[in-house]
Every structure is written in C-alpha cells, then in structure tokens.
Amino acid sequence: MRDADIAAILAVRDQGAFHSLLDFCARVPLRRDPLESLLLCGAFDALHEHRRGLLWRLDETLAKA
Predict the structure, then answer these.
(1) Matching InterPro entries, A to Z (predicted)?
(2) Which in 4, 21, 30, 31 has the greatest CB count within 10 A?
(3) Contact 27, 42 (CB under 8 A)
C-alpha cells in the first residue's frame, strides 16, 4: 500500500470506527487493488465473517460507495 493510502485510513479512522465494508469504502478513497489486499489479509474479518463474500461483492460495494 502507498503511504498516502495508509495516512487516509488512519485519518478517517480517528473520526470513528468502521461499521461495514461499505462504510469504509464511502469514507476512505482507495483503489480496488489495495482494498482487495486488505480484504484478503483479513482486515475486515471483524466486520464480516466471510472474506470471500466481501470479495465477491467488492465491485458492487465500491459502486454504492
């Protein structure tokens, strides 16, 4: 991930916890590739029990955000 991506995540996280992947995508402007990497490494496991499900709906989630 780029330093700018990490800084953006940390800045937004200071404003409050993320409640869902959609909430994260709406608040943090990330490209699909780093977002997919975060999904695959388990960054959203506390928000959803199925990584594969989040990955499957990632394009739809990004479109909504």
Answers:
(1) DNAPol_HHH (IPR029460)
(2) 21
(3) no
